[in-house]
Amino acid sequence: MADDKTNVDDKLDALLAGSAEDSAPKEVAQKKKSAKAKATADDSFELTEAEKEELSALAASDVTEELKEQKRKAFLESERARIRREKLFQHGKDENGADAEAVAVILAPHSPFLRLDHNIYYHGRVYRVGQQKAAVLKEQMYRGWLHMSEISGENMNAFYGRQARNMTINPSNAGVA
Q: How many CB atoms lie within 10 A of CB 133?
């Protein structure tokens, strides 16, 4: 134990005297601290105003090019769709390639137009549409006229040129078609 005590005493004396052995690590630590201070002072990561303006202009041009490219793509797609519709129309087809048919839109007085798939069909015009749309337009026109006849009291059979069949069925008509 005496040896341990002498080692500790020797170390204390060396520390108090500031021996050369212990001063070397202190000098290295001081050099590291001064190097860190210089690095933070010299190697600043802040952007200058000129760099900020240059980067801002670069970002603005990138965004402009990106938006312009999106506009070009959208315009190209709409032109393709328009040309496709025109080519199909020349061959008697609708925009989906189905056979088209001409439908004259004749509406009841209370209807200004028909709307189908965000398209408006006006009274008195002829439209070339696919068979499915044509069927829907004809049904809507028929229902409009049917509603008109119900509220005005007109006879729909007379409208279509049909005569009403008023028949009475009794035993004497048995077996007669």
A: 22
Instruction: Phi first, then psi: give them for residue 121, nearest 5 degrees.
Output: -115, 120
Give the model confidence (pLDDT) of 120-159 as tens digits. 999 999 988 888 889 999 999 999 988 888 888 777 766 6
Place of tokens 């050369």: 20
Contacts of 117 (CB under 8 A, 6+ apart): 133
Contacts with 155 (C-beta within 8 Å, 6 or more apart), sequence order: 149, 164
Is the separation of the CB atoms in 98 and 90 below 8 Å? no
pTM over 0.70: no
Any idea where the domains of the chain sit in the sequence?
Answer: 54-91, 93-160
d(CA 6, CA 2): 6
Spatial distance between the Cα atoms of 143 and 148, rounded to a whole number of angstroms: 9
Q: How far apart are CA 137 and CA 111, in angstroms?
A: 13
Classify each residue of 2-37 as buried b or exposed e, where b means 16 or more C-beta atoms within 10 Å of its C-beta: eeeeeeeeeeeeeeeeeeeeeeeeeeeeeeeeeeee
Cβ 96 vs Cβ 130: under 8 Å:
yes
User: What is the per-residue pLDDT across 61-80, written as a single tens digit (0 to 9) for each?
Assistant: 999 999 999 999 999 999 99
Place of tokens 């201070």: 37
